[in-house]
Design a protein that fits this description.
This protein has 16 helices and two strands. The protein is mainly α.
């Protein structure tokens, strides 16, 4: 990348910091700078059906994952796992539908409210309600994590719609859940992952937004701590491992322009889930930033050939890949 282009990227990065309050409020649920222990073991246990559902979600077979999730809801209606899985699958559909290229980056940018959002919010409410019902009987770190992730999922949709007040409202509740989870079990890697998201992103806020954060009484963060916590989440998390890896790779690209490091973090996603066009677009994007046009074009072509979950995602992926290939002077 020549010096002129680098200056443009720095300028656009500053513009992103000024304009992306929604990125912050999406992550507001994790209000802590607490570092989890670096020596963690997997500390949530999932049935084989849930593991299969997660593989299908990240493998881009979202309808099959939803079918498994609803089966778990039927067999264990008072457990939050099935509701979490359905909400996670829905989120990835929503993410794909919102993707576009801005500032040379493929990302899910702001979108308006969609009719299907209400069904998603009802599912996340069910996840939270079932977790809280179990907590009322017996307090465990696991159920606090499920409740906290439920609030996190709600925050993602609200942030995408720029409903900042709603994000703050559910974020305050999510904060309490995750902090309590780590009080009960300091080795709860999934809680550490969500806290890492907050710590990284809150440290990237513009001075104006940081001032608003102070007035709202929201603690500051640390990118260094956030990276460590996200690494804990992606290496040891059960529910949040893939999300943590994907989020860290995107953050390193978008806010630090550390393309080589971001590629190193993101490449295992493409290896494990070669049919996920979202992961392939990210890897193509990073290779393009590194000047590796041939590798970038290969990832974009693979994304174009991937099976799509629905027609909206198909159209988005097609438009994005063609635009990137054109920028690389590829067909």
């Amino acid at each position: 990348m020549d010096s002129a282009r680098q200056r443009v990227r720095i300028r656009d990065g500053n513009r992103l910091r000024r304009g992306h309050w929604h990125c912050f409020v999406f992550l507001v649920l994790s209000f802590s700078t607490l570092l989890a222990s670096p020596l963690l073991a997997d500390n949530l246990s999932l049935p084989s059906e849930a593991i299969q559902a997660l593989d299908k979600i990240y493998g881009n077979d979202l309808d099959a994952a939803i079918a498994i999730a609803r089966g778990l809801q039927h067999s264990e209606p008072d457990h939050p796992l099935g509701y979490f899985l359905e909400a996670e699958a829905f989120w990835w559909k929503r993410y794909c539908a919102a993707c576009e290229i801005k500032y040379g980056m493929v990302e899910a940018w702001k979108q308006s409210k969609e009719p299907e959002d209400e069904a998603f919010l009802q599912i996340t409410d069910k996840e939270i309600d079932t977790a809280e019902a179990r907590l009322a009987k017996s307090e465990t770190a696991e159920m606090h994590v499920y409740a906290g992730i439920g609030y996190d999922l709600k925050a993602r949709i609200y942030a995408l719609r720029s409903e900042n007040r709603n994000v703050a409202r559910v974020g305050v509740k999510g904060r309490a859940e995750m902090l309590r989870a780590l009080e009960l079990d300091p080795q709860m890697a999934d809680a550490s992952a969500v806290l890492g998201i907050y710590n990284y992103y809150v440290d990237t806020l513009s001075p104006i937004v940081k001032l608003l954060r102070v007035f709202m009484g929201i603690p500051g963060g640390s990118k260094e701590n956030g990276v460590k916590q996200l690494q804990v989440g992606m290496d040891h998390g059960v529910l949040m491992a893939v999300d943590a890896r994907f989020i860290l790779a995107r953050a390193l690209r978008q806010y630090d322009q550390k393309y080589e490091q971001a590629l190193s973090v993101g490449e295992p996603l493409g290896v494990r889930y070669p049919n996920n066009p979202i992961f392939l677009l990210l890897l193509g994007n990073l290779n393009a930033e590194l000047g590796r046009s041939a590798d970038a074009a290969q990832y974009f072509r693979l994304a174009l050939q991937s099976p799509m979950p629905d027609s909206v995602c198909t159209a988005r992926i097609r438009d994005i890949t063609h635009a990137f290939l054109a920028s690389l002077h590829q067909k």
